Amino acid sequence: QVQLVESGGGLVQPGGSLRLSCVVSGNFLAVYTMGWYRQVPGKERELVVRINRDPVITYGDHMEGRFTISRDTAKNAVELQGNNLDYDDTGVYYCNANVEDFDEVVGAYWGQGTRVSVSS
Q1: Rounded mean pLDDT of 86-96?
Q2: 10-12 vs 114-118, strand pairing mode
């Protein structure tokens, strides 16, 4: 069974920073693209940033410049760093990973989500 375990999040002051971590655990053959999505109030879930194994980084709309992603492929872990946050960044952030199981099937897995609240 594959699980994505997230950590970090919480209350952030405007202009502050966040750091979220995610680790893929369980039984699997390989982890491919990993990334972070978010759902802010009143909007659909959107891509923040993702990274594949090459590594090639892809940013969501208006995300580049404030968010960065790093990956430890050996540990199947990824970290999101966000800077200069504002109120519109408040929402639930989800880790996502494409994972190949022992049947050689690649599926998309999600973490449980971690809440980030930007507030003074």
Answers
A1: 97
A2: parallel
